[in-house]
Amino acid sequence: SSLLRASEKTASSRTASSDDGSQDIMIEEKRRCPDGDGHTIHQYLRGRMLGKGGFAKVYLCTAMDTGKQYAVKVVAKSNLVKARARQKLQTEIKIHRTLKHRHICQYKHYFEDRSNCYILLELCHNQSLNEMIKRRKRLTEPEAAYFLNHLLDSVKFMHDNSVIHRDLKLGNLFLDRDMELKVGDFGLATRVEDGDEKRKTICGTPNYIAPEIIQGDKSKRGHSFEVDVWSIGVILYTMLVGKPPYEAKDVKATYQRILANEYSFPGALELSERVKDLIRCILQSDPKDRPSLETIMAHPFLNDSPLPQYLPSNLLHRVPVWQ
Ligand code: ADP
User: Fold this and answer.
1) Helix, strand, or coil here: 84?
2) Which of 16, 93, 148, 263 is placed for a possible disulfide with 245 were both Cys, Cβ 3.0 to 4.6 Å?
3) Tens digits of residue pLDDT in 252-288
4) Which of 115, 94, 87 is nearest to 11 (CA)?
5) Lining residues, ligand 1, CB within 6 Å
């Protein structure tokens, strides 16, 4: 039985049993013809592993018929035994495939075989902002403004399309060859059908999670688009400081710091008043007090400070000298 009704395709991978990621293997997609019962075979060469997620492995992948390169997200069906896990993947695909934007990692195609589900994605050559920050320790303000600009563009587009991402963090902000930011991983995203509907499930990653999500079930307040705005504040802080604002020794302590909204700017860094003002303005405990995306876009940090139009990829390793 097909996992997704949307893609009535089956395929078989030649070396499914030796799928340890250490060798190049050929993946075969058996694509059913739209009319009649014939099918065509499409081959993909799976190359090196690009990264690992909670339940997926992501590899470099080349379509043999076109020579085009992609990232392929491979989820073993053995990880989808529970209905909840299947539901999660289905939701991810259902939402991701509808979103097409310059700053969203483009969903390309879905297929499955006996052992795995495959999601073909736009290839992002330069990993994620997480790796960049680890190498660089922290970014300069013009760089942070550049990435924030891309991120806001992308989240504005999602929200305009009733999608809340709910897991915005450095590790889900990928960089392509031209250092364009691409938001990925829609595994926790949700589409708000009714404008007033509030989501009540716990989701997100501890360091970036908004206070109303932690309180969630207790207060029955639910949460909405403002959770993404909160994460944007955490991301901006983390790009500039090098570690998340509410980081603590364990998840419980992090939650406590978030609930108390306890963070500070390291004095030694000499951050501009402009950017500190923007971060303070975003990281407000009450979601109603947080600015709209438009208000953030209009903030002096993005309008009265230098904003690079593009970044060279040597900045992945080297601190820029702004002239
Ligand atoms: P999960 O949903 O299981 O957390 P992710 O979507 O976060 O999986 O992907 C896991 C890792 O794979 C990422 O952290 C990243 O390193 C890599 N990755 C994911 N998508 C791409 C892509 N489009 N291009 C390049 N690398 C990617």
Assistant:
1) helix
2) 263
3) 999 999 999 999 999 889 999 999 999 999 999 999 9
4) 115
5) 50-56, 58, 71, 73, 105, 121-124, 127-128, 171-172, 174, 184-185, 187
